[in-house]
Design goal:
The protein has 318 residues and is α+β, with helices and mostly antiparallel strands. The protein has 9 helices and 10 strands. The chain has helices at residues 33-39, 48-76, 143-157, 162-177, 183-186, 195-198, 218-232, 272-281, 284-303, and strands spanning 20-23, 28-30, 101-110, 113-121, 124-132, 188-191, 247-252, 262-265, 309-310, 315-316. Helix 3 (143-157) packs antiparallel against helix 4 (162-177). It is elongated and about 85 Å long.
């Protein structure tokens, strides 16, 4: 099945165009607009519903053609002939091609990473957005940024233009930079499972920070530093330390007097002094660039679009 994404020499000529968009374990997805345009000279005047119905008709037609061909495949490739337990059946095998759904538009990122706008499934009209495996759905992606990415994705699937998405990205970027969106919401969510592994010697008298063992992941380093600040500022009597296995958030910081690159916090128990420190030194630009922008750039590349932000004029150049 994987060969369908290529142009198999034993089926097609090398110069033939391949309309296979994606293959999964037991499913094939084909770009159907070319055949619909070939069959319907008024394709551009057809409504979306009419296009869906026409596409379903083509799919059902090819479903039967392929299922009939399975008779030859079963005998010549698998040596399957009539067996006693098939006496009451019309066919000699169980091989069957079946139309699953009509997809009005789709975005295929990689294997098991896609989004599809399903308008018909097994003959039943529906409006379903099926999203699997995309980066913004991961547990360590800030939900507030994931919500924005999802809406941009949905809008593209439903026909939004590049310029419309560009404008929304610019507006959302400004909301991140001007403080409209809370830093607590912008924090990277994760769980610290190796805190004890990378915590070295505790800070001694006159020292502020503990030793961090080389190789510590960024959220672990940020958590150790948070605990040191809680102790140094004598806030541990009222607030909790971050402990092994805790679910935390962490953010990047701009250059500061403590030379801290990132700081973690417990969303349910944030000292006011920590909030003040974060608000003063949070690197909102880096948060936007490293978490959301690089995902959007990958999305744009897949669409054949180009996304460039001028940080000085705050203007898109496409």
């Amino acid at each position: 099945m994987k060969h369908l994404e290529e142009t198999p020499w034993w089926i097609c000529d090398a110069e033939d165009e391949n309309y296979c968009a994606y293959v999964d374990t037991d499913s094939n997805y084909f770009h159907a607009e070319p055949i619909l345009r070939h069959r319907y000279s008024n394709f551009d005047e057809m409504s979306d519903k009419e296009k869906d119905n026409a596409l379903e008709g083509v799919a059902l037609e090819y479903q039967d053609i392929i299922t009939n061909h399975y008779d030859i495949l079963a005998k010549e490739a698998f040596n399957v002939y009539k067996f006693p337990w098939f006496e009451d059946r019309k066919k000699d095998h169980w091989l069957e091609m079946k139309t699953e759904c009509v997809i009005r538009s789709a975005y295929f990122r990689a294997t098991r990473r896609y989004a599809q706008w399903i308008t018909k499934q097994e003959g039943v009209e529906k409006e379903t957005l099926d999203i699997k495996g995309l980066e913004y759905k991961k547990a360590n992606f800030p939900p507030v940024l994931g919500k924005f990415f999802k809406q941009a994705l949905v809008d593209v699937l439903k026909g939004a233009t590049q310029e419309e998405i560009n404008i929304r990205i610019k507006e959302y970027r400004n909301q991140i930079l001007d403080g409209t969106i809370s830093l607590i919401d912008l924090g990277n969510p994760t769980a610290v499972k190796t805190l004890s592994k990378y915590t070295g010697r505790k800070a001694r008298a006159g020292e502020m920070f503990s030793k961090i063992i080389k190789g510590a992941p960024a959220p672990v380093k940020a958590s150790i530093i948070y605990n040191d600040l809680i102790r140094f500022w004598r806030l541990d009597g009222e607030h909790s330390y971050i402990t092994q296995g805790d679910k935390i958030k962490w953010i990047y910081l701009k250059p500061n007097r403590y030379q801290i690159e990132a700081l973690a916090f417990l969303p349910f128990d944030i000292p006011k002094k920590i909030i003040t420190f974060i608000e003063e030194y949070a690197d909102r630009q880096k948060i936007f660039d490293s978490i959301l922008l690089n995902k959007l750039e990958g999305f744009y590349t897949d669409l054949g679009w180009s996304l460039k932000l001028n940080s000085y004029k705050e203007k898109f150049f496409i």
